[in-house]
Write a structure and sequence with these properties.
CATH class of the largest domain: Alpha Beta
Number of helices: 10
CATH topology of the largest domain: Spore Coat Polysaccharide Biosynthesis Protein SpsA, Chain A
Shape: elongated
Oligomer: single chain
Strand content: 15-25%
Mean pLDDT: 78
Strand order of the largest sheet: 7-5-6-4-1-2-3-8-9
Number of domains: 2
Low-confidence stretches: none
Largest sheet: 9 strands, mixed
CATH superfamily of the largest domain: Spore Coat Polysaccharide Biosynthesis Protein SpsA, Chain A
Distance between the termini: 26 Å
Radius of gyration: 25 Å
Helix content: 40-55%
């Protein structure tokens, strides 16, 4: 059995295409499959349309969260409810082609892999978004302990053994591509060109992408702390030489009269201290969220072929 997990948030224009393309793509592999669409607090007609397709084909299941918990939490909810021996992940905007799932599944079996990622060769998206994503992948690859995550997103397929290991990771600040690489196992790639969105508006705004990037960097890299350390060391060296210059200029009588240099130094040091406090605050906030032990998501309803229930 194959399970396909798809988070949905305000995608009423795409659900019909999503249903037919995904069912046709999975039918080329096996008729024993399920598609779990996780409604992440949609405010349009997405949930209504999802339920109508569930009535047409009960393999098309609908997991309804009690509110919007975010993209990564919605994926986690779907993965926890997946029953398949092989489990695939795909965004609901159809930028990742479901027709590629057959090739990914075949590679998983033929090469005896545990996880196969879809790796993007080209991105047909707006240049500003592409530039930000390339910058993030460059920084993440250089400064994290994970090197192969470059140009890899959520589009993937894994076996049950890998999924069980993946679900054992319970942190609240989640970057799923990084977590998939963290668990290890044998992994491979299928290369493809990522299409631009055809219908509707992108749900991952620039701010959400930046927040996701920060979660990834703070979770898998010590770069922020190193920035504090190296900036502090450079500042100490610069001010040592500045103090030496000031002392010599005082002795030989060429010191500049005025307080501008002192004020600039104070402003500079104050800004650096605020920057460091902000970085440390990010770590403290993430530690605080982990210690709260709140659930990553809350399920409101689940429409499946066995039963439909309300929590």
């Amino acid at each position: 059995m194959i399970s396909l997990v798809i988070p949905i948030y305000n995608e009423e224009l795409l659900i019909e295409k999503l249903f037919y393309r995904c069912t046709q793509a999975l039918s080329t592999i096996t008729e024993d499959f399920e598609i779990i669409c996780v409604d992440d607090g949609s405010q349009d007609r997405s949930l209504e349309i999802l339920k109508s397709f569930h009535k047409k084909d009960t393999r098309f299941k609908v997991l309804v969260l009690s509110r919007n918990f975010g993209h990564q939490a919605a994926y986690t909810a779907g993965l926890q409810h997946a029953k398949g021996e092989y489990i695939a992940m795909m965004d609901g905007d159809l930028q990742d082609p479901p027709e590629l799932l057959a090739s990914m599944h075949q590679k998983l079996l033929s090469e005896q892999l545990d996880i196969v990622h879809g790796k993007r060769q080209k991105r047909k998206e707006q240049w500003g978004k592409k530039a930000l994503i390339k910058l993030f992948h460059f920084v993440f690859k250089r400064f994290s302990q994970i090197s192969d995550v470059n140009d890899v997103g959520n589009f993937s397929i894994m076996n049950r053994k890998a999924l069980n290991a993946f679900l054992s990771l319970t942190e609240k600040n989640r970057y799923l591509p990084g977590l998939r690489f963290f668990i290890g196992f044998t992994q491979g790639f299928v290369y493809y060109d990522r299409e631009d969105r055809q219908d509707g508006e992108a749900k991952m705004s620039t701010l959400k992408l930046i927040n996701l990037a920060l979660d990834a960097i703070f979770s898998f890299s010590d770069l922020p702390i190193k920035i504090c350390l190296y900036t502090g060391l450079i500042g100490m060296i610069l001010f040592f030489f500045a103090g030496l210059y000031t002392l010599i200029s005082k002795i030989i009588g060429i010191a500049i009269i005025g307080w501008s240099s002192i004020l600039l130094s104070l402003y500079f040091l104050g800004s650096i201290q605020l920057l460091f406090m902000g970085i440390l605050g990010e770590y403290v906030f993430r530690i605080y969220k982990e210690t709260q032990q709140r659930p990553i998501f809350i399920v409101k309803e689940f429409y499946s072929e066995e039963r439909n229930y309300n929590n």
